[in-house]
Amino acid sequence: MDQDTAAPAPGPLGRVWQLDLPGDVPGGGWRWTHYDLVAPGSLPAIRAEGWGEAALAVLHDKDESPRLEVEGEVVCGILPDFAQQSGPGEQLLASWRFAMTPTQITTARRAATQGLYRAWRAVQAGQVPDGPAALLDQVVAQLGAGISQRADALDDAARRVEDELLAEAPTRSPEELGRKLGEIRRETTRLQRLAVPVMRLVREETGDLPGWADAETHAAARRRMLAALDDLRALQEHGRALQDELSARQAAETNRNLNLLSVLTAVLLPPTLVSGFFGMNTEGLPWSGDGQGTAWAAGLMLASMAGTLALLRLRRIV
Description:
By secondary structure, the protein is an alpha+beta fold. Among the domains are: 7-115, CorA soluble domain-like (Beta Polymerase, domain 2, 2-Layer Sandwich); 263-314, Methane Monooxygenase Hydroxylase, Chain G, domain 1, CATH 1.20.58. The protein has seven helices and six strands; from the N terminus they run ββααββββααααα. It has helices spanning 42-48, 53-60, 114-124, 132-166, 174-204, 219-278, 293-314; strands at residues 15-22, 29-36, 67-71, 74-82, 93-101, 104-109. The two termini are 59 Å apart. Keywords: Cell inner membrane, Cell membrane, Ion transport, Membrane, Transmembrane, Transmembrane helix, Transport, Zinc.
């Protein structure tokens, strides 16, 4: 997380910031208000801005499933993002909500998200979107870029697993490599489940948007999300190939162990038979009265083992 510019703290009504911005919209300007929904007074403050019941329901709905709704000139919805406190090793997820018209957008969240924070920082640096639809496009594009960045990190980890698999003397056991590969595939699946609903929204729902939020305004977001999905699909295919290779290596190792066990069983079977024969409590056993009988019996056991090994080598089993 960037630390050079701290986000403002929520006010008494949960309002984190309210910005009046210039842009290519009717009237020449638009307003962006952002709320922290954890604050008790956030709902009355949002209601006081004049939003309808449909927008209010979306903004305070506890369901975090991504969706996009249109009511006349008002567009509202819920979108996922990475949590602002996420570290490089693990990307925690959070949802944010919005309601917007041509000249106003209200965003709200329960946990701080990276996309909204970075959009706020960009505005502070003078990079102001043309309007609410452009702001939405910017935040979704940031999500796509974050997914691609995480996919690159996972791909690097997958390549390290691949190097271990192809090495003549791996430093990690197949079990360790399997666990690491499982973590990579699990994270890839999680990111794909995050990206697919967002891609579906910006691709399919844009046909229902009002004219001021035309589908063309979401071109950058679609490109970013498509690139992220392509990265995830490639990573998923790479993970499957590595899993197949690892399974083949583990099967070969298992076969070697079974072959060794079979050879040992075959080699030890004749001496076991000899020892069992001489262990019978019957009269007339060979060498029972000979002082060197034990040595002769041991020699017979060794000879049977040598004969078995010779036979196995002759049959090219060992």
